[in-house]
Design brief:
Oligomer: single chain
Number of helices: 0
Shape: globular
Strand content: over 45%
Distance between the termini: 37 Å
Radius of gyration: 13 Å
Order of helices and strands: EEEEEEEEEEE
Helix content: under 10%
Structural class: mainly beta
Length: 115
């Protein structure tokens, strides 16, 4: 099982990034997918979750209206479009796959918002 995040980097406030998480080794279309983030000195927090078929999403209040999650089950990939980035969005972003008692995590990608 692998979840590999990509697309992180350094961006100025107000800028955009698109994260990707490519999955392999499990039945991607049967799993809910989530993006989490962890800032230095803080606990890991849920950013957004998308259901297995993509019909349901749940966003943290801090990112509503700025971030959009999507998934392509044919490509076994989940995306996070991040717009209007703020300093406080700086964190390592992780994707997570979950179905029943099965949970898989990626290793994360760093997002740094700085001027």
């Amino acid at each position: 099982v692998q979840l590999v995040e990509s697309g992180g980097g350094l961006v100025q406030p107000g800028g955009s990034l698109r994260l990707s998480c490519a999955a392999s080794g499990f039945t991607f279309s049967s799993y809910a997918m989530s993006w989490y983030r962890q800032a230095p000195g803080k606990e890991r927090e849920l950013v957004v979750r998308i259901s297995s078929a993509g019909g349901s999403t749940n966003y943290a209040d801090s990112v509503k209206g700025r971030f959009t999650i999507s998934r392509d089950n044919a490509k076994k990939t989940v995306y996070l479009q991040m717009n209007s980035l703020k300093f406080e969005d700086t964190a390592v972003y992780y994707c997570k796959a979950n179905r029943s008692t099965y949970t898989y995590w990626g290793r994360g990608t760093q997002v740094t918002v700085s001027s």
